[in-house]
Amino acid sequence: MGTNSQSTTIMVSEDDVPAPSQFSDDTAVCIVSVKGLKENWQKWSDEHQEYQKHNPFSHDTRPSVVVPQRGQDDYGRPLQGSMTAQRGKDAHRHISREVQELCEVIKNIGEMRHRDEGGSSGDGKMFTVEFGRLFEHYVTISNKLVGILLRARKQRLVNFEGEMLWQGKDDHVVITLLQ
After folding, report:
1. Would the pTM count as exceeding 0.90?
2. Pairing state between β 28-33 and 7-12
3. Residues contacting residue 162 through CB under 8 Å, at least 6 positions apart
């Protein structure tokens, strides 16, 4: 059987810290300075109070804080340079890459057709694929194909009939790559 070693945390003031030679090797002891804990807590508290002064949803908001109003550029947007703003930018880049990847998949597995209407710009060629076939190929790449298709349609990169596509029911809906 193994030995039973215990880990103990002792909180002492800096004046009461014993010399390291007083501890035995069998017991792991962690000494935490109360003064250090107090300083860290006070620092966090001061930073939080300062942050709350600029938070428009806080009860600590001062009249000097300008709260964005509806219609202004920064209304409904995170503070510039904040982690929330960075996460939003990262998410936008990720979705853009997925939309580009979807367009490449449509080019690779789709059929090239000529546009019948004469008024459109371009060389008259476009790629089309049925939703069922696209779903079969794309399911190994991403499990959110319909959401990516909706985003690509919003960006006018693809077109298809209907508001939403459902596996099985809409397998024969034709998806057209516009660009």
Report:
1. no
2. parallel
3. 170, 173
